[in-house]
Amino acid sequence: MYLCSRIKTQQHPSMEISAQQIAEYLGGTIEGNASAMVNTFAKIEEGVPGALSFYYDPKFEPYIYQTRSSVVLVPATFQPAQPVQPTLIRVEDPRMAIGRLLAFYESMKPKRTGIDPLAYVAPTAKIGKDVYLAPFAAVGDGAVIGDGTALHPHATVGANAKVGKDCILYANCTVYHNCIVGDRCILHAGSVVGADGFGFAPNENGYEKIPQIGIAILEDDVELGANACVDRASMGATIIHRDVKIDNLVQVGHNVEVDSHTVLCAQVGIAGSTKVGEWCTFTGQVGVAGHITIADRTTFGAQSGVPGSVKKPGQTLLGYPAMDPKVFARATAVFKTLPEMAIQLRQLQKQVEELKEKLEIEGI
Asked: Is 342 helix (H, G, I), strand (E, B) or coil?
């Protein structure tokens, strides 16, 4: 077992890089001073000397003529309507380019290693190389922590659980007993992997708890947002496949399977035993029933309700129940006029009754 009572911190090199170096790294072309230096990032509307910014949305174009940033990433096709002060670097997709640079910058941040004396490591746990365990982090009996992984304060890995290499478990997140987390996963504060699935059997006295004896598995490159929960299976495994991204406050029920590259945005809830395909997008507050199947590359608009399976791949659906966006738009238009329609209907009903009375009086 790897133990260290001293915390070590790698020094973070100050970022000082030229426009020429940035262009070479991104494969872009320079317009302006290739020797311009940057040492920080800033939004284009908040630019300062020495900052690198990016521009991609035409509504922000006025800022490119006002910004004080030294270097700005712009689309290759951008044609300025007036002179610009900063050096421009033309790239195919400025958002992707800035993402690459931010990832590079993040990789150069200080990295702590070692086990704080206030952390708890069970005698039978296995701790890899260059691991960081913060004060009050806890690793249970038989648990395995991979090389380069960091557990921040009060992060807990239960008995016989496994966490892979180069993961980050932020404060107060929990990996329950026997559960598995792959390599390069990020678990944000308060997230939970492997809490009991919501299993109860009603009887005459209330509800009897059904033991949840399965596990939860996160494959490589999964990210869980703050306070997101992935329940353990009643039997077998709840599985989050590789590169799935889960936002804050998301609930994934027991025995759910989410295929690779799917995105679950804030407050999504997926009930038990549902199978979700790959490259799906669930925007905010989508609710999904249990025991159904969602086809690959399905996109659900915000607050959609999904009561049944979606079998055709590649659809975008909105509303409750989730439907074609054009149908939803027409239905919404009708919904807005329902109060007026109700008044008109009552008026028509009254007129019909009056007409019937008149016909009866006249003996028709």
From this structure: helix
Residues in the chain: 364
Q: Are residues 144 and 208 in the same domain?
A: yes
Angle at 153 between CA 233 and CA 159, to 5 degrees: 35
pLDDT tens-digit series, residues 196-215: 999 999 999 999 999 999 99
Q: Is the pLDDT of residue 3 over 70?
A: no
The pairing of strands 223-224 and 245-246 is: parallel
**Residue-averaged pLDDT of the chain:** 92
Q: Mark whether 254 is an active-site residue.
A: yes
Same-domain check for residues 204 and 270: yes
The answer to whether 225 touches 244, Cβ cutoff 8 Å, is no
State how far the Cα of 32 lies from the Cα of 218, in Å rounded to an integer.
Answer: 47
The helix (run of H) or strand (run of E) holding residue 175 is: strand 174-175
Specify the 3-state DSSP secondary structure of 48.
Answer: coil
Q: For residues 248 and 227, is the Cβ–Cβ distance under 8 A?
A: yes
Q: Are residues 246 and 273 in the same domain?
A: yes
Listed in sequence order, the residues at least 6 apart from 146 whose beta carbon sits closer than 8 Å to its beta carbon are 128, 131, 162, 163, 164, 165, 166, 167, 183
Query: How many whole angstroms separate alpha carbon 230 and alpha carbon 251?
Result: 6
The reported pTM is: 0.84
Based on the fold, state whether residues 186 and 168 are members of the same structural domain. yes
CATH of the domain at 96: 3.40.1390.10
Determine what percent of the chain is predicted with pLDDT higher than 90. Answer: 81
Q: Which of 83, 107, 131 is the last residue of a domain?
A: 107
- Boundaries of domain holding 281: 112-317
User: Catalytic residue among 241, 254, 261, 291, which?
Assistant: 254
